[in-house]
C-alpha cells in the first residue's frame, strides 16, 4: 500500500513534467504465439494480438516516469526490466513480475512543450521496436 501511495504522490509531483512509461507482457495463453510471430517477423501477426483484446492478451507489469522519449524510453524500460544491476529499482517498479522481452509492449505517454500528452505503443522485437 505504501508503494501505491508513493507512486500516486510521485505522479502528482512529476506528472506534468515527465513522461509515463507503462510495460505489458503477453499473457501466458498467447505468449508462445506472440514469440513465434516475432521470430517470423510477422508484424501484422504481432499487431493482431495487441489489437484483438489487450485486456485479455496482455498483463501490466509496471510503470515509471522518465525524461526519455520514444525509443530511448523503450530501451530504458527494457534495461530496467532486464539489467541485473538495476534489480532494486526494478522491484520498486515491477515487484517480482517477469521481465519485458520479445512481444512485450511499452505504452508511452509523452508530454510536448505545451504539456499535451501523446500516447504511443511500441512492441519489443528480437531486435528493435514495432510501432503499434
Tell me about this structure.
With 132 residues, this protein is α+β, with helices and mostly antiparallel strands. The chain has one domain. Helices cover 43% and strands 27% of the residues. The protein has a five-stranded antiparallel sheet, sandwiched between helices. The chain is globular and about 35 Å long. The mean pLDDT is 84.
What is the element layout, followed by pairings?
Blueprint: H1 2-14, E1 19-26, H2 31-39, H3 43-52, H4 54-57, E2 58-66, H5 70-82, H6 87-94, E3 105-111, E4 117-124, E5 129-131
Antiparallel strand pairs: 1-2, 1-3, 3-4, 4-5
Task: Explain briefly what this protein structure is.
With 132 residues, the chain is α+β, with helices and mostly antiparallel strands. The chain has helices at 2-14, 31-39, 43-52, 54-57, 70-82, 87-94, and strands at 19-26, 58-66, 105-111, 117-124, 129-131.
H/E element sequence: HEHHHEHHEEE
Helix and strand content put the structural class at alpha+beta
Strand order of the largest sheet: 2-1-3-4-5
Rg on CA atoms, Å: 15 Å
Helical residue percent band: 40-55%
Number of strands: 5
Report the total helices: 6
Shape: globular
Ends apart, CA distance between termini: 33 Å
Which residues form runs of ≥5 with pLDDT under 50? none
Strand content: 25-35%
Q: Could you give a short account of the major beta sheet?
A: 5 strands, antiparallel
Number of domains: 1
Q: Name the average pLDDT.
A: 84
Short key terms for the protein model shown above:
132 residues
